[in-house]
Amino acid sequence: MDTSAGAVSLSIELRYLIYVSLWLAVLWVPYILAHISQVGVVTALGYSDAELAMPVWARRLKRAHYNLVENIVPFAVAVGAGEILNIHTSITATCALVFLIARLVHPFAQVLAIWGTRTASFAVGWVAVVVYLLAIFGWV
Known about the structure:
Elements: H1 12-39, H2 41-45, H3 56-85, H4 90-112, H5 117-136
């Protein structure tokens, strides 16, 4: 890591993990705003079952957000293990890029309900993580 000029050098895999994390950090905003616009601030901040008043697209986006929350963990483990073990190959970089792209596509596929794209983007991201983890073990 070169910090001579005050800049930190990140591996491409870690950079993609940060991009996915930023995506995760902002993905909830549209569905929360939609919920607030439907039921008002007081109800939205409460603990009612008013979520049912959320527009269909917002409910779909919320599910996509939760799916990313669940799927970022194995990706972060793979990237973290690669960082600790200093394993940075074309396979790990490609897997990280594929995961990033798949996870950027997934919420749009979920919200737009384009047949097959949600499942395909999820599956592509999942395969990328599995291959990445196998690469950490040196099995691919």
